[in-house]
Amino acid sequence: MTEHAAEGIRASWTDSVAIAPIGDGRFRARVGEQWTSLQGVHGGVVAALALTATERVLAELGVDPATTLRAATFGYVSGNVQGEIEIEVDVIRRGRAMVTSHATTSQGGKTTTVARFHHSTPWEGPVYSAAPPMPIRPEGTVLLARPERPSHINNVETHLHPDTKMFAETELAEWLAWSRPQDGSTFDAAWLAMFGDYFPPAVFTRASGPQRAVTIEYSLQIHDARGSWTLGEDEYLAARMHAFHSHDGFAVEDGWIYLPDGALLATVRQTRLAG
Q: Cα-flanking dihedrals φ and ψ of residue 221, to 5°?
């Protein structure tokens, strides 16, 4: 494998998050076959579209440009499929520093995803971290790609730790990976919202074969107020996704996403149906 991903069947990020206003805080968008996932379409791109629509509304309201996304929660109440989606945004509260918004995504008149966003200007506060340290990339990482067919996997350049393997019955249900956007080196909160849900379920590394692992809730916390980030030519985000507990048909998966300098950029948590 080369250090950078080969051309495959992948989507333009700009096209993927294109939205068209239809009035009263509502937008239309389209999810194409390049966002095919294990079931239906990738939930992360739906999250990114909901955020893109919400930030369009906030900009139209004249919210301070220094306001950026700091936390989001997505509830997947029904599966999304390829095709047109509609997004409706409702600004719940607009304070001096923080704005809280809801976005509802639907297809064919049926709600598929509900989202809550908290945008804020920067705050002063204590600085510390007891988060796990950034994983160090070893030799022999393996390019994750499905170049022979459309898949959301192809839309991010990702290199897996050589010990991270699907259905390998590993001791830990964990992904270790190093990733960067396919389109350029700069990314924003919408891309990060997609990426936080990008990886297949971590329980798949512990399992011996395919099993149910559908996300029902996904949350993202961003720990950097800049709102946009640029990677150097040979720089990657490091990601660790760990399903640390599974019981009674539900699994909890925590994730940490690091900038190349080791700073913690974002944390994610997913609740999945499992088993």
A: -125, 125
Structural element, H or E, at residue 187 = strand 186-188
Query: Taking a C-beta distance cutoff of 8 angstroms, is the pair 181, 138 a contact?
Result: no
Structural domain contains residue 129 = no
Q: Is 224 left (phi over 0), alpha (psi -120 to 50) or beta?
A: beta
Asked whether residue 86 is assigned to any structural domain, the reply reads yes
* 99 lies in some domain: yes
Q: Which of 164, 167, 196, 190 is nearest to 177 (CA)?
A: 164
Q: What is the pLDDT of residues 227-253, one digit of tens each?
A: 999 999 999 999 999 989 989 989 999
Q: 43: domain CATH number?
A: 2.40.160.210
24-28, 47-51, 124-128: range with lowest mean pLDDT: 124-128
Q: How many domains is the chain partitioned into structurally? A: 1
Q: What Cα–Cα distance (Å) separates residue 56 from each residue in 31, 101, 135, 223, 227?
A: 18, 12, 35, 22, 14
Q: Which of 48, 44, 43, 42 is nearest to 19 (CA)?
A: 48
189-219: pLDDT as tens digits: 999 999 999 998 877 777 666 666 789 999 9
Beta bridge partners of 258: 238, 264
Contact 119/142 with Cβ under 8 angstroms?
no
- Distance between CA atoms of residues 105 and 241, nearest Å: 26
Query: Residue 8 has what pLDDT?
Result: 54
In a domain, 209, yes or no: yes
DSSP secondary structure code for residue 239 in this structure: E
Domain range for 171 is 13-122+140-273
